[in-house]
Amino acid sequence: MSRLEAKKPPLFISEPLTKETVSQSLSLLSGIFKSCYGPAGRLKMLHNGVGGYVCTTSQSSAILSSISVSHPALSVLMASVQNHISRFSDCGLFTAILCCSLIEKFKSLNIESCTVIKISKHLLSLCMDYLKSEACGCRVSVDFSSLEILLCLVRSVLTSKPACMLNKPEVDHLTTLILKAFMFTVPCHAETNAVLGKCIIIPVKGRRVVDSTVLPGLLIETPEIQLAKPLAVKRTCSNMIKVALFCVSMSGDLFNPGEGTITVHHGISLEVSELNELLNVGKQLVNDEVGLVVCQKVIHPCLKQYLKENHIMAVDRAGLSPMEPLSRMTGSKPIASVHSLSPSCYGSLKDVRTESFASKHFVRLIPNDTVVCSLILCNRNETAWDELKRACETAEHVLQLTVKEPLALLGGGCTETHLASYIRHKSCSLSTSTFKDLDCSQTQYQLVADGFCHSLESVACSLNHDDREILTDMVYGHCWFVPSGFPSVSNWSDLVSKCGCGINDNTENLSWRLLQGQFGSPVIHGCPKDPPVKVSDSLTLDCFAAKCSGLQLALETANLILDLSYVIEDQN
């Protein structure tokens, strides 16, 4: 027997954020996130170091799942952002960049962390109250009787993913398709607890993006189907198609008894007995006037032939993903055993058709009320298709969140700079009782507020990847990008035409300041104005729910990490 080692005591690391390795890792993480941000973000190639699949992306969901960090404080940051993405799909990079910047800015202040946390929570409450008020100058109401704002939301998601490699006609085509697909998932009849349907994405790689299309109903790939022959599907007396949905194998294979034993009488064939059981199921399906059988797994060829002879269409190998939407759109209950078949498990369909796209053949199931649709999504290669699929799923989720809260925030860095201008204005007009309640001095409050505002502005600056000058105007507090190649002493009004979100054009006599590196920036006299909303196809918008949550999560996570006094590591 080998000698046992003595148990080592745990390692106590005090003030972990003061360690140089943590600061370097945080700075590196921040740099990675910033370099990916926005429509001009730089792409990252992710692979496992020993070959295999390579993912080219700039999306936070793919990047965060591929990066491993060793320090507990950074693990908290990564986990928080990943949790945000799992709930909202959008604004992951915004949350990560803001959180990193807040940690770096607040850490550099010579103020107790408990004081910084109290002040930053007050600043967050000012932001959230403003964003949720009617007076907010950086939000837009979404009117579902008009499509312009919804189209802008979807287009903004697609254009922020450069690895999708889309040109303008492709973006326009996909924007319309995604919105159309989303409309199919909205129930036709208003209910108190209405639930949105589902859009199933069907992959077609190696085709043009503009070949993508959307169809109401559910497509299931069936390579063996014969398109030339018309479908002979049994219908009920009400001209509906009765559906049976099986989530169990109907292949006739014997179950695995494990370590047990099976006793079989002489002359009895288990295979024949199993097949007879399946044929009895087929007879019951015929008697119950079922017209379509869909099986998640495999159907025995003899049973398939029997069903076909009785004008029942059989679709097997459907897989797991279509089962839930299929159950919902038909009203059928998945049957988990071939030995217990109840007529109450059946559902119904309006029609069944065959579709062909590229070299693939499909059965298209059309329900009575369309709450499920199929988006046939095309792109040139596998890598670009994977990125486009994530972008389409994000856009769909953004529309779902917008239904719950019909608001949008101005994009292109304008919400961040506008909020920073608002906080600078508010922090200069607070009463002394506020500082007393927070147990801080006015100087401390101003230092934390300045760090908070610069962190917001650093997110807007992260949209710049070409060393261009970035401005903010002194009226609306919006973000403006100067074309590259002009000196800093230029007359800015001659160089900028539209702000980052596209809502303001340079028709007024605006005054400017440089956004980058401006500590102690001048404060806008009075609260930043609310610009008139001029809806156009060039408007850049962000999801209201996702960005508000990202703002809250970034600050709360930064406060949590700043409050760390010790890291205790088990060395055994």
Protein described:
The chain has 15 helices and 20 strands. The chain folds into 3 domains: 13-138 and 410-569, Orthogonal Bundle (GROEL, domain 1); 143-217 and 376-405; 219-256 and 267-369, GroEL (3-Layer(bba) Sandwich). Strand 12 (351-357) and strand 13 form a beta hairpin. It is α+β, with helices and mostly antiparallel strands. Helix 1 (20-36) runs antiparallel to helix 4 (92-108), helix 2 runs antiparallel to helix 3 and helix 5 (113-131) crosses helix 14 (442-461). A 4-stranded mixed beta sheet has the order 10-9-8-11, with helices on both faces. It has helices at 20-36, 60-66, 72-88, 92-108, 113-131, 148-159, 168-184, 270-287, 301-309, 323-330, 382-404, 414-427, 432-438, 442-461, 544-562, and strands spanning 11-14, 44-46, 55-57, 139-141, 198-205, 213-216, 218-221, 241-246, 290-295, 313-315, 347-349, 351-357, 360-366, 372-379, 407-410, 470-473, 479-481, 512-514, 541-543, 566-569. InterPro entries: Chaperonin_TCP-1_CS, Cpn60/GroEL/TCP-1, GroEL-like_apical_dom_sf, GROEL-like_equatorial_sf, MKKS, TCP-1-like_intermed_sf. Its main location: cytoplasm. Pfam families: Cpn60_TCP1. It is found in: Cytoplasm, Cytoskeleton, Microtubule organizing center, Centrosome; Cytoplasm, Cytosol; Nucleus. One of its GO terms (molecular function) is ATP binding.
